[in-house]
């Protein structure tokens, strides 16, 4: 009997250099190097800084992953790498490195879609994904609702943010409250002691008039501005800003919209499984609210553990393993780094 | 000893195989594509092609030599990421050399200005005598390089005589601008008026009218064999593998956010 394939995944689409190794759908290693600290003083990810960090981190992170899994590159059956979407210069470092590994070790290479990988990673923890499923991917770089018909062949985009990503809104609000970067975990912690009903912040694209054109789209720019106005009005009046209440009320507005639209997408498509991924999936309020609302409709919510929600190499390896298992042809050595890679493309055709 | 040379510091993606023997270098195969936006797509197939053309497999390689730039960063990193990952996978040493030195070496006898396109209407440049670097590498506007040449004065050798040290190079060249006023006084010897008698590199071709010396139009990109020649002693001596750090001559463009702008009017 043949062993399940040993697949290596490389992720460099933003500020995390991730190398993951799976055997079949079992996670063997997940090594990560982050440049997040280098971006903190800029209040957001600086692409050139991220690209420099990826190049420095690649070889040592690979070594850690191989050591953790107890394998060598010669043992690997296939190499998967994030081809897009993401920061062009950052993606290019991962793609070039992946080609070097594939070329030298004479292994097939798969250029894969970062968003599909966010969905695939859940199968490492929760087993095969019932298809079709709805996936909601929310992070500093993306906010999307997807209908997953077949993880290895096609994903249908239902909606996405029309302005800021959900995680970006957390970053910007944390900054205007003077809480630091990245904003997601800080707001989550700060909100615990606040009253989420204290301030009625707007819910973007939820009005009846938005249903026709933007039923499954998101908008967080107006919310961010509303928070800024509210805070500034208090400051001008010489009143203290109730940071915990603002955090809780802002977080509630984001989570309310995200979960309402995700459940609507499940009901509209007759889907009973909702997968949530991306860094914002680690938000405690989002998880609770999604589960409460889904339970009312008999929908099962699947959320990977926080370390697998944020960008990592395991997710890329997981998707690569699904592609190998499905007999999908590998990509060619001229596969591009595609910063605007379409969701309809799960892997770069060979 | 079969050596792979890679360079993506210019619009060219170059992959070359060179045989290094005890007393010589022999070019085996070379592939080059000139497309400033396609290093990421072109380089790996070129490596596969030169290996196939020569009838070798990756495991036959003894070492990898990579051009560290200076060059536009996005493309430059493609060559270095590829070289580093191949070296790791094959467990063979990687050596970094200055890409301008490859051109300087290939230019041969005489005094030569090597200039490559740094974009933003600037060039990366260095000067050479008989293949040995005299000054640079540095980055500046072509007109400023021309003025320095006319004055017979170029900044002192940023690299010193020791091994390539990307960290100290980056530090020395950052700051108030690569050709800060202070450097202008550091003439290299007094008598280098008419510092060079010709120029090479695609930056020299692009801005050749400004430099006022003949441009060698056949020598625009670093040849693989010249890069290997620069590392030949290390290859023969089985020197320890080197971390491939790009010669970054500029700081990342990034600004810290300004104070919050009011949203109430
Ligand atoms: Zn992501």
UniProtKB/TrEMBL annotation, chain A:
Enzyme class, spelled out: transferase
Gene Ontology molecular function terms on file: iron ion binding; tRNA N(6)-L-threonylcarbamoyladenine synthase activity
A GO-annotated cellular component: cytoplasm
Residue positions binding substrate: 137-141, 171, 184, 188, 283
Cofactor binding note of this UniProt entry: Binds 1 Fe(2+) ion per subunit.
Reaction it catalyzes: L-threonylcarbamoyladenylate + adenosine(37) in tRNA = N(6)-L-threonylcarbamoyladenosine(37) in tRNA + AMP + H(+)
Keywords: Acyltransferase, Cytoplasm, Iron, Metal-binding, Transferase, tRNA processing
Keyword flag tRNA processing: yes
CDD domains with a match to the protein in the record: ASKHA_NBD_TsaD_bac (cd24133)
EC number from the UniProt entry: 2.3.1.234
Gene Ontology biological-process entries: tRNA threonylcarbamoyladenosine modification
InterPro entries referenced in this protein's UniProt entry, alphabetically: ATPase_NBD, Gcp-like_dom, KAE1/TsaD, TsaD
Biological function: Required for the formation of a threonylcarbamoyl group on adenosine at position 37 (t(6)A37) in tRNAs that read codons beginning with adenine. Is involved in the transfer of the threonylcarbamoyl moiety of threonylcarbamoyl-AMP (TC-AMP) to the N6 group of A37, together with TsaE and TsaB. TsaD likely plays a direct catalytic role in this reaction.
Residues noted as binding Fe cation in the record, renumbered to the chain: 114, 118, 311
Family according to the record: Belongs to the KAE1 / TsaD family.
Cofactor(s) required, per the database record: Fe(2+)
PANTHER family linked: TRNA N6-ADENOSINE THREONYLCARBAMOYLTRANSFERASE (PTHR11735), TRNA N6-ADENOSINE THREONYLCARBAMOYLTRANSFERASE, MITOCHONDRIAL (PTHR11735:SF6)
Stretches assigned to the Gcp-like domain: 27-317
Protein name: tRNA N6-adenosine threonylcarbamoyltransferase
Record keyword Iron present: yes
Protein source organism: Actinoplanes lutulentus
Location in the cell: Cytoplasm
TrEMBL record, chain B:
Protein's UniProt name: tRNA threonylcarbamoyl adenosine modification protein YeaZ
Coiled coil: none
SUPFAM superfamilies given in the database record: Actin-like ATPase domain (SSF53067)
Residue ranges annotated for the Gcp-like domain, each copy included: 37-155
Cross-referenced InterPro entries: ATPase_NBD, Gcp-like_dom, T6A_TsaB
GO aspect biological process, one term: tRNA threonylcarbamoyladenosine modification
One Pfam short name: TsaD
